[in-house]
Specification:
single chain, mainly alpha, 0% strand, 43 residues
């Protein structure tokens, strides 16, 4: 099972429960694509 950071968990909460737009600011190689794929598998 994937382990996510506190910050990633906050993004999950936003996507699932809030409305509007969000911005994820992360450097190259931070694992954004892996994170998005993990989020899609969960939801």
């Amino acid at each position: 099972m994937l382990k996510f950071t506190t910050e990633q968990d906050e993004i999950f909460y936003f996507v699932k429960n809030d409305t509007g737009h969000g911005i994820i600011d992360a450097v190259a190689g931070a694992g954004k694509n892996n994170y998005y794929h993990g989020m899609c598998k969960i939801y």
